[in-house]
Write a structure and sequence with these properties.
mainly alpha, three-stranded antiparallel sheet, elongated
Length: 497
């Protein structure tokens, strides 16, 4: 089995989050505790996994209790596996003509969720077998109960079942390690609530498949040159100048570590990529100094746009998390720029997965687009075919060609980076490339309008902060219906701002 430490780290992070979330929802439906009580119960599960399940010294003493080899092998297999070309599924619901997104989930997350549920079943059975028999009887009813909880959440029936759950409080099901209190009054409601339900909800109407990666790398591509989107170009013409318009943006640029940036640019120059860039210019050859200056300006533009995007995603503090997010983006930018001339024909032979080939083609497109933007002048606009994009037809001279090319390259790169870093979160928040671009344009409109920015910060931003979308690599959960509605309204609508 081949796996990398990065894959294991990502899998363990996802597993930890999913396990925590499922168990917390389970506990909240078993009884009422202060938040510290729920926290302790969750930590007990992690302690059990580390100390009892994976501690080799305890293998002999626990061998008579249950055979843990199957669950350990399953956990190891899931947490060390790499899924290529995995499917993504969007969950949403249409009500009153308004589409609300519940989120996205991948095949890998479904597998990790299965592992989390099976581990929880083993944990509750092993830590209090008598209570397990009284409450859940067996694994089938345990799974049935978890299914009820999730179904109620999707159907927004939590308040109704919360009232039913209150009748179980006298049983004192939690704390789990304590004894179960029985009474004739609660026996019936207990049996009905934990018993197997005859109602089976069809969840297929909530699920929408996302097209998988193709060998051409076209996953939900959105043409930047669609004639119906001309208004977008007028906005993009000023996006590249946003840090010159807004004083706040000027301050953001000053946070950029110029020493690191200049060292990356120097490496770019040493790799002999200046000649490669000039291949994108048909008539004029730019000097090395001119191209490196343009590259520095482009890197600053990326920093500025990402700073504004991080703020829109709910993280306004310029702390270590903010700097790490920015550094991750800059690292990826120069990783693409400093690669030798990317070629699908030469490189794809060593890439077996369709997803890998798709990613390579996307990187080729971004590299070509950035190089073209660095060579664009006011007299004419040279165009190099970019995979998955239509050739532009610029007949309107009011468009500021260099700024449009630079803005397009910057936003395409941002879109690629955020989708690559956490594709499930990207699909949950933005759904597709078109909505991502509209979110950037909407962000720019707010930055140039004090009233719109003030309204956003007072109404929607506080709600977005509670979702904790940043750090972007981390998993997250939508815990309330208004959070889903906020994401849908902010990032998945066609409104102007």
């Amino acid at each position: 089995m081949h796996f990398t430490s990065k894959i294991v780290e990502e899998n363990v992070l996802n597993f930890s989050h999913i396990l925590w979330f499922i168990n917390l929802r389970l506990l909240r439906n078993l009884g009422i505790l202060p938040m510290e009580g729920y926290l302790k119960h969750n930590l007990d599960v992690y302690d059990w996994i580390i100390d009892d399940l994976y501690n080799q010294e305890k293998n002999i003493s626990m061998r008579n209790k249950f055979d843990k080899s199957n669950i350990v092998n399953f956990a190891t297999s899931v947490l060390t596996s790499e899924t290529s070309n995995e499917g993504i599924y969007l969950l949403g619901h249409s009500f009153g003509g308004f589409q609300t997104s519940y989120g996205a989930i991948s095949d890998k997350q479904l597998l990790i969720s299965k592992l989390a549920v099976e581990l929880l079943a083993v944990y509750y059975q092993q830590t209090n077998s008598e209570k397990w028999k009284e409450v859940f009887k067996n694994e089938t009813l345990f799974l049935s109960y978890l299914g009820k909880i999730q179904t109620n959440h999707i159907r927004s029936l939590r308040s109704y079942y919360q009232s039913k759950m209150n009748t179980l409080q006298p049983l004192e099901i939690i704390p789990w390690k304590g004894q179960l209190k029985k009474s004739n009054k609660t026996k019936t409601s207990h049996r009905v609530y934990f018993g197997k339900t005859k109602f089976k909800m069809d969840l297929s109407r909530f699920v929408k498949d996302v097209p998988t990666y193709t060998s051409e790398g076209r996953v939900d591509e959105f043409s930047m040159y669609d004639s119906r989107e001309k208004i977008v170009f007028k906005s993009w013409d000023s996006i590249s100048k946003v840090h010159g318009i807004n004083n706040l943006m000027k301050e953001k640029v000053e946070k950029l570590d110029l020493n690191v940036l200049l060292s990356q640019i120097q490496m770019f120059s040493q790799n002999g990529l200046i000649k490669l860039i000039n291949q994108h210019k048909l008539n004029t050859t730019f000097s090395e100094e001119d191209i490196l200056t343009r590259l520095e300006d482009f890197a600053k533009l990326i920093w500025v746009l990402n700073s504004a995007l991080i703020g829109t995603l709910g993280h306004e503090e310029e702390d270590q998390i903010y700097l790490q997010e920015q550094n991750n983006l800059q690292k990826e930018l120069f990783s693409i720029l400093n690669e030798a001339k990317l070629s699908v024909d030469e490189s794809s032979s060593s890439i077996s997965s369709t997803k890998g080939k798709s990613d390579l083609r996307k990187r080729i497109g971004i590299q070509n687009l950035i190089f073209s933007s660095l060579c664009c002048d006011h007299q004419r606009m040279d165009y190099v075919d970019v995979i998955g994009q239509d050739k532009p037809n610029f007949e309107d001279h009011e468009y500021h060609h260099p700024d449009i090319m630079k803005s397009r390259a910057a936003i395409d790169f941002l879109c690629y980076f955020y989708q690559k870093e956490n594709h499930v979160k990207w699909f949950t928040v933005f759904q597709n490339k078109k909505y991502f671009h509209k979110s950037i344009v909407r962000m720019k409109v707010r930055l140039n309008s004090g009233a719109n920015l003030k309204n956003f910060k007072s109404i929607n931003l506080p709600k977005i902060k509670l979702i904790k979308l940043i750090p972007w690599r981390n998993p997250f959960s939508l815990t309330a219906g208004d959070q889903r509605a906020t994401l849908t309204f902010e990032f998945q609508t066609k409104r102007k701002y």
